[in-house]
Amino acid sequence: MFKDVNILLFFLRCHLLGIAILLSFQVKGQSKLSIPIYDKFGIDSLFSIEDKVNALVDMMTLEEKIGQMTQVRHFDDITDGDIDKKFIGSVIHTQGPSPGEGAAGWQAKFRILQNQALSTRLGIPLMFAVDAIHGQNTYNGATIFPHNIGMGATHNPSVVEAAAAITATEVQATGFNWTFSPCIAIPYNEKWGRVYEAYSESTDLTCELVKASVRGHQGDLSKNNTVVATAKHFIGDGSTDYGREGGFTSLNMKEVSERLLPPYRDAVNEKIGAIMVSFNSLSGTAMHAHKELIMDTLKNAMGFDGMVVTDWKGYSRFGKNDIINAGVDVVMAVDGDLDIFQKELKVAVIRQEVSEERVDDAVKRILRQKFRLGLFENPFPDSSLVAHIGSQDHRDIARQAVRESLVLLKHENNVLPIKKETKKIVVVGEHADNAGLQSGGWTVAWQGVQENYSGATTILDGIKAKAKGEVIYDINAHEIHTDADVVIIVVGETPYAEFMGDVGEGRGAPKLTLSSKHQKYIDTYKNNNAKIITILISGRPLVTTKQINQSDAFIAAWLPGSEGDGIAEVLFGEYNFTGKLPHSWPKSVDCFKDKFGPNFWDDSIKPLFEFGFRLKY
Ligand code: BGC
Fold it and tell me: Atom 11, ligand 1: which residue's CA is nearest?
């Protein structure tokens, strides 16, 4: 490999002399720590990532190291000059002001920030992170896939992998290189407001799909259209008592190990780059500070070599430096945490309350991902990717995912497939013609939107495109078309995200049953002896025993995302149903009385439909 022994010797000298030689080659404004040297002598490829990481950490001051561990928003948390003065390591975008006009504008904004990072002494590039959890859902006009519960219903790792790869491309196209996805919770209480973010109540199915998701997102990480993925929220997020977001998980370690850890093990084996710790506590300890699970289990026993990142404002909420000692590497220092974190960690290191080795370990994990991403060579987003956002081939895969996610729970009287020649089809319900309502939370905005958004089609659009007869939209079941050949009633939940979707005392508005308004749509047409096909749009199984009985056909459509017209392809017989339940389906609200919820795992409560149930027509 070393063609010339002199080059080898020179290179070794560079490595040993470290700062002096390397810095002398660094040109201000150019990104590359040592790339000029590598380039000049053509020995870049001879250096392993681990060697580069170690060399770089050896050169860093404590402030620079703490900076790498810091993640901020591009607004609010920082003022001009903070990126370089505080040696920030990564930037997050969630809710909040748009970074710019169109995807090119987003890229331009992140280029400015990147240049600030590159202008620092060591020129370590930033990572840009985003909650792209079902497509690049923070960008209006991106391809939006069904939420993970729908992807779980497909039981199809290939479509999950393809969706993740497309998401990665659209994430990069908007200027990011890191996504906070997939959520690999195993939800076992539908009262939890984040059930839809996870694939399934089944550990085995979640394992299969997380592997596909990591492969799709990360692929060959050094390419310009792949991103670092994040498995979240470690661990027990979906298993809290009463399904409370950030509550207490009373599972014992054996249950945690058998039911919740396997998907993390698979994600680690697939070389996932990041894992986010959870808001909940377990065995009396906040997960952010749970050394036994983070340091001992995840890092040491499972061999995770990526970054452990906090959740929102996790530093000040969960014990400050205790969380660093427990194994957290990146701190989401938002909402006032930036200076507190940087100052208090520095003091703790000086006082030896946190060892410098722990800090070095954190920084190495961060740099490892930056090198794997190829950021030192290529710190900027690729402008040619912008053209791929929301492209037809991306949307075609999302439409396939929609079709495969539909679960037929009841079918009688041959109402399906609907003949295209049917004379009169009546469509009821505001969810039938509203892309925001059909997409759920984390779509365009954190809590979702309740109107159409760019590039999306609705369920009604699809029906109108396929039907050759008359299609009437009776949005609120006010007109009552007694002559309808078939009535398609679309009902369900309104968008919510995180704790806003929790059901229960002191929590948000949602219920696990249909609203009386939506019940009335079904009653109205049932009283007129119509043939009813009910489509349920929801982020979790709802108690719908009565409505299932009232309908000739009943379809669980989850939260399909931007390609709502894909549903019509199955309704009109172009494709049959293939989706299978990713969760057991509850029979009555009594199932939810216990603090553990309808724990179908132990067969103590019989569901209306078992996990895996499906019909075809
Ligand atoms: C959520 C995470 C999310 C983070 C950043 C938190 O409130 O729990 O899932 O990644 O915010 O937006």
Answer: 312
Question: Does the annotation mark 161 as catalytic?
Answer: no
Which of 131, 234, 318, 447 to mutate for ligand 1's pocket (most ligand atoms within 8 Å of CB)?
131
Under 8 Å between Cβ of 225 and 177 = no
Q: How far, in Å, are 500, 509, 524, 541, 542 from residue 189 at the CA level?
A: 15, 17, 32, 10, 11
- Gap from CA of 343 to ligand 1 centroid (Å): 24
Q: Which of 77, 311, 461, 485 is catalytic?
A: 311
User: Is there an atom of ligand 1 within 6 Å of 197 CB?
Assistant: no
* CB neighbours of residue 481 within 10 Å: 18
With a 6 A CB cut-off, is 499 part of the ligand 1 pocket? no
Q: Would the pLDDT of 21 be above 70?
A: no
Between CA 73 and CA 446 the distance in angstroms is 15
Residue carrying structure tokens 């007869």? 469
* pTM (two decimals): 0.93
Residue 443 region by backbone torsions, left for phi larger than 0, else alpha for psi between -120 and 50, else beta:
beta
Question: What whole-number distance in Å separates Cα of residue 141 and Cα of residue 105?
Answer: 14
- For the chain, which residues make up each domain, given as ranges? 6-386, 406-599
Nearest-CA residue for atom 7 of ligand 1 = 312
As given in the structure block, the two tokens for residue 419 are 């003949």
498 is catalytic: yes
Residue 29 has pLDDT above 50, yes or no: no
The CATH superfamily of 6-386 is Glycoside hydrolase, family 3, N-terminal domain (3.20.20.300)
Q: How far is the CA of 312 from the centre of ligand 1 (A)?
A: 6
Q: Where would I find the beta strands (DSSP E) of 323-430?
A: 331-332, 407-411, 424-428
pLDDT at 41 over 80: no
Is residue 613 in contact with ligand 1, taking CB distance under 6 Å? no
Among 176, 194, 498, 499, which residue has the most ligand 1 atoms within 8 Å of its CB, making it the best to mutate? 498
Q: Which CATH superfamily is domain 406-599 in?
A: Glycoside hydrolase family 3 C-terminal domain (3.40.50.1700)
* Tens digit of each residue's pLDDT (9 = 90 or more) over 92-134: 998 889 999 999 999 999 999 999 999 999 999 999 999 999 9
CA distance 577 to 614: 8
pLDDT of residue 289: 98
Distance CA 235, CA 249 (A): 9
Percent of all residues in the chain with a pLDDT value above 90, rounded to a whole number: 85
Q: Does the beta carbon of 245 lie inside 6 Å of ligand 1?
A: no
The residue among 246, 137, 133 whose CA lies nearest residue 184 is 133
